[in-house]
Amino acid sequence: MIPHLADGAGSQDPADSQVNGNVHAGRANSDDPGNTCACSMGNTGKHSIAQGIHASIDYNDEPDHSDNHTDKDPDASYDTDFWSEEEYVEATKEMQNICKNSKHVSQFLRFGGAGYNLSVSHQFESSSEVARCAVQPGNIDDLKKIMKVFMTYDKVKFAVKGGGHSTNPGFSSTTGIQISMANFNELEYNSKTQNLRIGAGCLFDEVYKEIAQYKRNIVGGATAAGVGVAGWLLGGGYSLLTNQHGLGIDNLVEVQVVLCNGESVKASAERNSDLFFAIRGGGNNFGIVTSFTVKTYPLGPIYRNMLTFPIDKAAKVKEAIMNFIDKCKDKKAAIVGAYRHFCIRGEREDKITVDLFYDGPLPSDNPFEELLELSDDKWIHHEDHDEADKKLAENFAFMDQLFSHIHDPSRVSAPPSHRQVDGSQLSLQTYAKNPPKSGVGEENVRARWGTVMVSHFTPKLLDEIDVQSKLAASKLKEYEGKTAVVDIWPFLPSMFDTSTSAAWPHERGRPNGPLLACFQWEGESNDSFWIGMMKQILQSIQKVAEAEGCTNDKLPKYCNTSLADTPVQDIYKEHLPKLIAIRAKYDPNNMMGRTGGFRIPLAL
C-alpha cells in the first residue's frame, strides 16, 4: 500500500502471527501427487486453478465467443479466461506453494470459501470486487515472496486490504488476487519509549482496547467500527485529538515496508527518510506496509455525549455550533455536528446530531453548555472512564452513525451455479457483491464519501449545508436511498502547529479539515444518480465556502474521503513532484499501478 491497505492502505508488521485454521490449497497441476482437485480443461491440456478457487465452476474448452463482445474491457466481467489466463494460473501456483511451505502460517484461499469471503469482504457492497483468489500472508518473509511473484508476473492485478472501509471501488479490492493483511495483527507497547507498534491488519476497535490497559491513548480514527489502521494512517488521519497532537501521520515514529522488489525495510526520520516522508499520506503507492509504530499519550477520564435534535431546531442548533466555534479555544474539546436524513421502510426521518468529546473531565467552564441546554436528552458523563479495562472504542466511535455500520466481515454471498443468462455467461460480478448488514436486517448497501476541504465554518456555510443535505434527502425514497449525511467538524486554527513534513500537505498556519458527505443507497442502477447528486451538492457547498473565504484552491483534497475521480494533483499539490521522484525510486516498474487507489505517477 503505498503501502497499501485498507481502504487503500498499509499493512502491518512481520509476524509471529499465525493464521487460524488449517486451510490449504495444493498446486493445481494434474501431475502433482498431492493434488486431489485438479481439473483438466477439456482437450486443451491446460490446467485450471479450481483447487485454489472453486471446483464447481463449469470449465469449457474455449471461451464463449457467441456474442463476440470484443469492445468490452476483459476485466469488466468474468468468462472462462478469468480462470485460465496463463499468468494468473502460474502466479496462483507459486502462491499456493509459498503457503504450503509455510505450513499454513500463510494461507491461500479458494474462491467461494469462508476464508476467501473474509479476505475480500468490504464494508460496503459497492466497494467490493470478486477476486480470482485471496492470500493471507502470515509473516514478512512470505509477503516478500508474494511480492516477488508479482514482479515475475507483471500483468497480474492485485489489491491489499486492511479494514476494507473505503467506499471507492477497487481501492482495496480487485478482480485479480486479493491480499488480506488480517494476520499482521500484532500490538506491542514499549513501556520505555511509550510507543505502540501496530500491525497493518489491525482495526481501531482492538487497538483502543489494547492500549487502554496501559492507560495510554493514540491519535486514531474518530470512528472505530471496522476501520483499519493502515488505510486511515496512509491517507493522513484526522482525529478527535488532532487539535492537540496533529494528524495520525504526525505521530508516526517508524514503519516497516515490504517494497515492490521484495525487500523489507524500516523507514523513519533517521533512515529511508524519503520513504518515510512518502508513506505519511501517500496512500498505496510505494509497497506494502506491515507495521506502524506510533506515539502514545496519557489516558485519563474522558467525556463523550451524543445529542440528537429534531430538524425544526436547526436554527438554534446552528447558532449554538457557531458560538462553540467562535468561543471555544480549548484543544481538548471537539464537536462533530451532522445533518442526518434516513429513509426507513419508505418513511423519511430527519434530524441533527452533535457529538461532544472532551479529553478529560469537563471543566467548570463547560464548552458544551449551550448545546446541552438545547437538548432534551439526558446528559451523559463519562468521567470515570479511566479504568484500564474500559472499551475505549465506545468513547472514540461516536461518529459511527455518520458513516459506519458494525463491521461484519462475513458479508460475501455464496455464488449460484454457473449458468447462461440471455445467451451470455452470467458474470461472477453480478452475484458476488458483498451485502453488508445495515442497522435493520440485511441489506445490500452501496455508499460513497465526498469532501469539501474547509479552513473554518461560517453561518452562511452552515445554512448551505442545511439546504443541500435536505435536497439529497428529498431524493431518498425515489432512488432507493438509505441515508444522506453532511457533517460539520470544526478544528482550531492551531491544529497543524505540531505538523511534520509529509506527503500530504498540512502546514502550520494553513488549517483545514474535511466537510464530509456520505450517501448510502440500494441498487447498482442508482449509482450514477447518487454519485452525481453528491458531486452537485459538494459543488454547491464549495461555491459558498469559497465566497465565505472558508476554502480556496490551495487546500489539498483529503484522499481518505474523496471521490475516486479526484485528480491526484488536487491531493498532493506542491508535494507531487517530490512524490513522483520517490515513487520512481521505489516502484520503477509500476507494480503498485496494478492496484487501485490514488496513483502517484512515475513521471509528470
From TrEMBL:
GO terms for molecular function: FAD binding; oxidoreductase activity. PROSITE patterns: FAD_PCMH (PS51387). The keyword Lyase does not apply. Residues 62-75 have a biased composition (Basic and acidic residues). InterPro entries: FAD-bd_PCMH (IPR016166), FAD-bd_PCMH-like_sf (IPR036318), FAD-bd_PCMH_sub2 (IPR016169), FAD-linked_Oxidoreductase (IPR050416), Oxid_FAD_bind_N (IPR006094). It holds the Pfam family FAD_binding_4. Residues 127-299 form the FAD-binding PCMH-type domain. Residues 1-34, 58-79 are annotated as: Disordered. This is FAD-binding PCMH-type domain-containing protein.
